[in-house]
Amino acid sequence: MACRTAHSFIDSFCWRGVPLLAALLWLGGCSTLDYYGHLARGQVQVWQASQPINALLGDPQVDPELRRRLALAQRARDFASAQLGLPDNRSYRLYADIQRPFVVWNLFATAEFSVKPELHCFPIAGCVAYRGYYSLGRARGAAALLKQRRFDTYVGGVEAYSTLGWFNDPILNSMLRWNDERLVAVIFHELAHQQLYVADDSAFNESFATFVEREGLRQWQQAQGLPAVDPSGAKQREQFSTLVLASRARLEQLYASELPADAMRAAKQAEFERLRQEYRTLREREWGGRGRYDGWIAAPLNNAKLLPFGLYDQWVPAFAALFAEAGGDWPRFYRRVAVLGELPLEARTKALEALRKAS
């Protein structure tokens, strides 16, 4: 499944038309079987909680605010297919109250002296930099086992995901915590994953979906006569991401050095303190003393916590340039993106770099 955390994703656990049990047995291994069984149970729980939104909209006993938000989601869903050329299916035509603030929790992990993620590989979706759990307890338990092996770990909650078109994904109660603009934007983002997904290239997939989300929201606001509101604080996020990526690059250089372990640990902590200080300076100089990431920066920092940064924005300028080359025509744009997705990774990266430089 492709998902958003402070945005990220986990992966599909079966093939269409293949019995789930057979797929799990094919994967082999007790721990693998237990994990995929957990994913299967979690997805089934989401299905069981799902109800057609049209039925809820016609139910006078439904809370008026919930009815308003669901009606908004359906208008955005119609717009996504009619105006943005995104898949026209039953995804986001259902609603599921899963009785918790997050649908899944993603576990990221790195070695103590590395900023490279521990990769997890899945059928269909390929290898990704995290492992997802429908239970916070299971995610924390897995993290504890990794910590015993001196891994850095980070667990982040996910409010929404896409199963890449394999199942009918519902609007979740966790998504309704967002404001109207953010809700609309994420529907566009997740449907973009259904439009196109390239195995083993998270930066490509997330940047593509982020571009569709941003341009789609701009067109939605224009069509609805709404002011151009940035629901996710893109400027602050970009500035903060720049700080984090610079810190990650310095850590990478540090870990490539030949310092003894104790000296390496001390330098690692000094780098995290530098990141905190740079954040405080940015908050005071640029944001008027109020920052969206105060809680994140104040909590413990480690290598794994830095991993999600850069995935969602890296190639957005390249996709913007490609959209301009396509004359703003969505079907033509998607065809061009699909051609990029078929290239080998090295050639794809070079093409994206050229597009970004031309933007």
Characterize the structure shown.
One of its GO terms (molecular function) is aminopeptidase activity. Keywords: Aminopeptidase, Hydrolase, Protease. Pfam families: Aminopep. This protein has 359 residues and is mainly α. It has three domains: 2-224, no CATH class; 234-306; 316-358, no CATH class. It is built from 13 helices and ten strands. The protein has helices at residues 20-27, 30-49, 53-57, 64-84, 136-148, 180-195, 202-224, 234-255, 261-286, 294-298, 316-325, 330-342, 345-358, and strands spanning 2-4, 50-52, 94-96, 104-110, 120-122, 126-128, 131-133, 152-158, 160-162, 171-172. Helix 8 (234-255) packs antiparallel against helix 9 (261-286), helix 11 packs across helix 12 and helix 11 crosses helix 13. It is globular, with a radius of gyration of 21 Å.
Could you provide a short overview of the structure?
One of its GO terms (molecular function) is aminopeptidase activity. This protein has 359 residues and is mainly alpha-helical. Strand 5 and strand 6 (126-128) form a beta hairpin.
